Structure formats: C-alpha cells, structure tokens
Amino acid sequence: MTNKPHHTSIDLQEVTTRNNDARAIVAGFAQATPTLADIWRYVQTALADTPPLVEEVIGLRAELTSTRLNRANLVAAIRATINAHHDGEDDPLSYLRDELLTQGYGDDPWGRI
C-alpha cells in the first residue's frame, strides 16, 4: 500500500505524566537550592511548553484521522464513478457528487455539484 498511514509510538499520556513528574522534581530542587532560582525558573518555563504541545498534537491527530477518512471516501466514490461509467449507468457522477456534498463541497449556486 503506497499511502499506508504512519502511526507514531509516542504515548501522549506518558509524556504528560513524565512532564508533571519533572516539574515536581524541579520545584523540589528550586526549594532546596534557592541560589539557582533563575536556572530552575528557566527549566520550569521550558517544561511548561509541553502541555500545550500535547494538546496541539491531539488536535492534529484528530484532524489527520478525519482527513484520511475523507480521502478514503473520495477514492471510493471515484472508483464507484468509474465502475458506474463502465457499466453504462445513467448518472455515473452521482457517486462523486454525493460524496462531495457529504464532505461539504456542495455550495455551488448553479447546481453543478
């Protein structure tokens, strides 16, 4: 399969857990060595970047899943259209038109879709 989806092995829950643990460790070090407060603040700021990045990845994964499904449905509609044409159906483009409407591409005011 040429367009096989790539699945990552990154467990975002585990990333979040490790990040929370690291933040707690740094907070403990900051209390134990207040002379290094600026360094610990810098590390805490860097660690604070992880939660929004995790949320962004979650959103992108969901969007990618939806895009892949839409693409697969369009490919199926294209194949059905080609087969309908070869079978001599009256309106072979109906399969493609229906899928385009389902995916929200049916706002042509002249009714061409």
Give the CA-CA distance, first to last residue. Answer: 31 Å
Structural class: mainly alpha
* Share in β-strands: under 5%
Could you spell the SSE succession in H and E letters? HHHH
Mean pLDDT: 91
Number of continuous helical runs: 4
Low-confidence stretches: none
Shape: rod-shaped
- Find the count of extended strands (DSSP E, 2+ residues): 0
Which keywords apply here?
single chain, 113 residues, mainly alpha
Describe the overall structure.
The structure is a single chain. By secondary structure, the protein is mostly helical. The protein is 70% helix and 0% strand. It has helices spanning 12-32, 37-48, 50-86, 94-102. The relative contact order is 0.07.
Write the layout of secondary structure elements.
Elements: H1 12-32, H2 37-48, H3 50-86, H4 94-102
Helix pairs in contact: 1-2, 1-3, 3-4
Brief digest:
The protein contains 4 helices and no strands. By secondary structure, it is mostly helical. The model has no long low-confidence stretch (mean pLDDT 91).
